[in-house]
């Protein structure tokens, strides 16, 4: 197994607060990996440690084999980070910004790749526009472009689609998915769990500075998500008492959480025996949002 990012027992304190309380995980080369968690869980702190912007109090982080503290320069060159905050120099144009960023990595004559990134991110028409004249969504695209100028094998995207319109969001995911197919390792944090479910092969969930779940997206969905049956009774029919405790009233219908799809049969049988007539029935599949809420409310460590 080729490990792209190795995180071992990382701790980070801010005063009395333990932002990271011993995080360990390995991310394999070529993975599209999701780092999820509620506000304040420690995602950005972990990314800052990975990018060498914050120094861990304990533990080790390596990117493509390079320790981020003792081999910081090499670790920085193999990593591209799209930060959450919109930080940029307002006096330069988009192209100048990307040339300067290339210069930081000692890359000259990078215009072919810069043009390609600009085209992929729909920024070609803005190449000669000053950064301060761009809209918030366009500035965010430039941050993505900046992270890619040196073609790093590992890209970290910290909430890249916050405040970004639907079209760019789709364009961005197409581009990042292409880079991932071509071999780049992608680490994504997002609060849009539908995006994480669609894109990430494996997911770690953080809570209060600890990893509380770490598994493939498919396994997380299979283990934690449940189905739900939504039943609408014919006018005048009432729900039998035997089912009332389990039922959640929802817009004139009743929702039942099912541990497995086979729970449907006895539920429908109870309704039939009680003489209830069904006006409508819907079987709903749980998604990553259900899994996330389930794990976050479970309280304990799951991994
Ligand atoms: N520079 C700092 N000084 C003091 N506390 C900090 C600092 N940076 C982060 N924290 C605290 O560390 C904890 C983790 O914050 P972090 O930004 O890593 O969370 P996050 O998971 O990225 O949250 P979000 O989803 O809101 O971006 C929070 O309680 C935060 O207030």
TrEMBL record:
<dbReference type="InterPro" id="IPR017871">
    <property type="entry name" value="ABC_transporter-like_CS"/>
</dbReference>
<keyword id="KW-0536">Nodulation</keyword>
<dbReference type="InterPro" id="IPR050763">
    <property type="entry name" value="ABC_transporter_ATP-binding"/>
</dbReference>
<dbReference type="InterPro" id="IPR003439">
    <property type="entry name" value="ABC_transporter-like_ATP-bd"/>
</dbReference>
<feature type="domain" description="ABC transporter">
    <location>
        <begin position="5"/>
        <end position="233"/>
    </location>
</feature>
<dbReference type="InterPro" id="IPR027417">
    <property type="entry name" value="P-loop_NTPase"/>
</dbReference>
<dbReference type="GO" id="GO:0005524">
    <property type="term" value="F:ATP binding"/>
</dbReference>
<dbReference type="InterPro" id="IPR003593">
    <property type="entry name" value="AAA+_ATPase"/>
</dbReference>
<keyword id="KW-0472">Membrane</keyword>
<dbReference type="Pfam" id="PF00005">
    <property type="entry name" value="ABC_tran"/>
</dbReference>
<comment type="similarity">
    <text>Belongs to the ABC transporter superfamily.</text>
</comment>
<keyword id="KW-0813">Transport</keyword>
<keyword id="KW-1003">Cell membrane</keyword>
<protein>
    <submittedName>
        <fullName>ABC transporter ATP-binding protein</fullName>
    </submittedName>
</protein>
<keyword id="KW-0547">Nucleotide-binding</keyword>
<keyword id="KW-0067">ATP-binding</keyword>
